[in-house]
Design brief:
This protein folds into three domains: 4-165, Immunoglobulins (Immunoglobulin-like), CATH 2.60.40; 170-269, Immunoglobulin-like (Sandwich); 279-377, Immunoglobulin-like (Sandwich). It is 2% helix and 50% strand. The protein has one helix and 31 strands. Strands 2, 3, 5, 7, 10 and 12 form a six-stranded antiparallel beta sheet that branches. Strands 1, 24, 26, 28 and 29 form a five-stranded mixed beta sheet that branches. Strands 4, 6, 9, 13 and 14 form a five-stranded mixed beta sheet that branches. A hairpin with a 2-residue loop joins strand 17 and strand 18 (186-189). The longest helix is centred in the N-terminal third of the chain and has 7 residues, at 38-44. Mean pLDDT is 84; it is low at 1-47.
């Protein structure tokens, strides 16, 4: 029997953005000369991020010394957020020089970050202009950093950085396995390491698997010890015999977070960047939670492209490269800088209970990239 359901890509969106201490605010567009002291101006800006007070400071300027400006806050930190969250923050760009400054344009480093059009604004000496920036969290876990670049001429720019960490209710620290490093222009490989698994809400839980195997605990015996809110696990890549997966997956007994993944940073898992491909995948993996043999459900994904190239939706393709999953492309539509996919997945009737780690090929215009489907199969 096939059970059809619509399954959100992201789990645990019930983690409210407000719980991260982020206050959303609007923006005063007029350019205002400053009559405030630094202490007064800081008080006028909404508090940003997880319990952080904005700090005004010199902007990163290219070339050095090209313009005398400061950002308030100097860097925007939105704290820890759930996948899929969208947050806003208000900033001020101060002119600390002696002559007026005219903004010629402003750009963001990614389609997931947007801001107002600052072109044409004039900032008087000692004054500021205020603007709002919005950042959308994608599905990948771990630290994120984007930036806004403000131009005062063809080669005179000031840069403000925006950071956040994307996490599920159960958090991995660090959010990746550091298995390869470049030292003196050569790769140095690491086979083992440790990672911390902790509940952000302080609720005890159990870990029931790590990459489809029994977890290897540090200083914990699951046969005798009571469940904890935090564990340390040891990871080991030797069993993979050189064929390293992209993700290392922890399975828990929490219904709101049955699987958490850590990206494996290894020389063999670097993203493919073929010459001629004019787009990048928005996601390299999707978490689908609990799935059952014979169950069908929908997921969504996307590829991102530049303004000079718009892929033909009719060229979109999706196929499964896993015996555990069947994949069918329902539709592909252009949406701004994205080609968005709706995909129907069906778990094979013969799929074995345990870790679901499937691979799709998703592409357009003659190119494709892997998209990993991660969950847990239960009877």
């Amino acid at each position: 029997m096939i059970v059809v359901s619509i399954r959100p890509i992201q789990l645990c969106l019930g983690l409210a953005v407000a719980a991260c201490g982020i206050l959303l605010s609007g923006c005063d567009r007029p350019v205002a000369p400053s009559t405030e002291t630094p202490a007064e101006s800081s008080a006028a800006i909404k508090r940003m991020g997880l319990g952080l007070t904005p700090q005004r400071g010199p902007a990163e300027v290219m070339p050095p010394g090209a313009v005398a400006v400061e950002f308030e806050p100097q860097k925007m930190n939105f704290g820890v957020l759930p996948p899929g969250a969208a947050v806003q923050g208000t900033s001020r760009l101060w002119n600390v020089g002696t002559t007026p400054l005219t903004i010629t344009k402003s750009i963001t480093s990614c389609g997931c970050t947007s801001t107002e059009n600052l072109a044409g604004r004039v900032i008087p000496p000692g004054g500021y202009t205020e603007f709002t920036t919005e950042m959308h969290m994608k599905s990948g876990l771990g630290p994120k950093m984007q930036k806004i670049t403000v131009f005062f001429g063809p080669k005179q720019v000031a840069i403000q950085f925006y950071t956040a960490e994307v996490s599920l209710p159960v958090r991995l620290t660090p959010p990746y396995l550091d298995a390869s490093k470049r030292v003196n222009n050569r790769w140095v490989q690491t086979q083992t390491g440790e990672i911390t698994v902790s509940a952000q809400d302080g609720r005890p839980f159990r870990i029931i698997g790590a990459q489809g195997r029994p977890p290897v605990f540090v200083d914990f015996d699951p046969a005798t010890d009571q469940p904890r809110t935090q564990y340390t696990l040891r990871w080991d890549l030797a069993p993979f015999q050189g064929v390293i997966p992209w993700y290392w997956v922890v399975e828990t007994n929490r219904a709101d977070c049955p699987v958490i993944d850590a990206r494996i940073r290894h020389s063999s898992t670097l993203p493919d960047q073929p010459q001629g491909r004019r787009w990048v995948p928005s996601d390299t993996r999707l978490l689908v939670g609990i799935a059952r043999p014979g169950e069908s459900f929908e997921v969504s994904s996307a590829i991102e492209y530049g303004s000079a190239f718009v892929p033909d939706p009719s060229s979109a393709v999706v196929s499964s490269e896993s015996a555990q999953l069947e994949a069918e492309l329902i539709e592909a539509q252009v949406d701004g800088q994205y080609l968005r996919y709706r995909i129907r997945l069906t778990v094979a009737e013969h799929a074995t209970p345990g870790l679901l780690y499937g691979q799709l090929a998703v592409g357009a215009s003659g190119f494709s990239v892997p998209l990993y489907i991660i969950g847990r199969i239960e009877p």
